[in-house]
Automatic annotation (TrEMBL):
Function of the molecule: Activation of anaerobic ribonucleoside-triphosphate reductase under anaerobic conditions by generation of an organic free radical, using S-adenosylmethionine and reduced flavodoxin as cosubstrates to produce 5'-deoxy-adenosine.
Stated family: Belongs to the organic radical-activating enzymes family.
Organism: Ectobacillus funiculus
Alphabetically ordered keywords of this record: 4Fe-4S, Iron, Iron-sulfur, Metal-binding, Oxidoreductase, S-adenosyl-L-methionine
Record field: catalytic activity: glycyl-[protein] + reduced [flavodoxin] + S-adenosyl-L-methionine = glycin-2-yl radical-[protein] + semiquinone [flavodoxin] + 5'-deoxyadenosine + L-methionine + H(+)
Upper classification of the organism: Bacteria, Bacillati, Bacillota, Bacilli, Bacillales
Radical SAM core domain: residues covered: 12-166
Cofactor (UniProt): [4Fe-4S] cluster
Name under which the protein is recorded: Anaerobic ribonucleoside-triphosphate reductase-activating protein
Length: 166
């Protein structure tokens, strides 16, 4: 996998204390992106699933967040990493520029399979015109926090979502 950075002890990338894996590569290229260097997959460092897992389990107090770039850009490898993380009993948040509906409609089996291991999905592209620094855990008001593992039928914006699939 191509990784931009691994950040330990974050409190802004999901609930609680988190280890954040920043993946390289992003097709969205949102205007105002906080990490434009992550757009090119070549800017990342190659790491194996085992190397990333060792970083994650080195701190037993943290949960895990995938961010980017676009984590689902490398979905064929990310799905396996997500599965392993869940085997360690970790809570997993994933930030993606895709909406939940786009993921399911893509019929990309790797992206859909990844969702089976995700507790919370923060979906939607960052939109500078909808930027809102008062929102917890997201940058623009179009982005949703969808709790996939709690069986909720709405996201944290109170909107109906397809979060209960799978």
């Amino acid at each position: 996998m191509r990784i931009m950075n691994i950040l330990h002890d974050s409190v802004v990338d999901g609930e609680g204390l988190r280890t954040v894996i920043f993946f390289a590569g992003c097709p969205h290229r949102c205007y105002g992106c906080h990490n434009p260097k992550s757009w090119k997959i070549e800017n990342g460092t190659s790491m194996t699933k085992q190397q990333i897992l060792e970083e994650i389990i080195s701190n037993p107090l943290t949960e895990v967040t995938f961010s980017g770039g676009e984590p689902l850009y490398q979905a064929s490898e990310v799905k396996d990493l997500a599965k392993e993380i869940k085997a360690y009993g970790k809570n997993l948040w994933v930030y993606t520029g895709y909406t939940l509906e786009e993921i399911y409609n893509s019929k990309n089996d790797d992206m859909i399979e990844t969702l089976k291991h995700v507790d919370v999905l923060v979906d939607g592209r960052f939109e500078m015109k909808k930027r809102d620094v008062t929102l917890p855990f997201r940058g623009s008001s179009n982005q949703r926090i969808i709790r996939l593992k709690e069986g909720r039928k709405s996201d944290d914006n109170g909107q109906n979502s397809a979060a209960c699939r799978g």
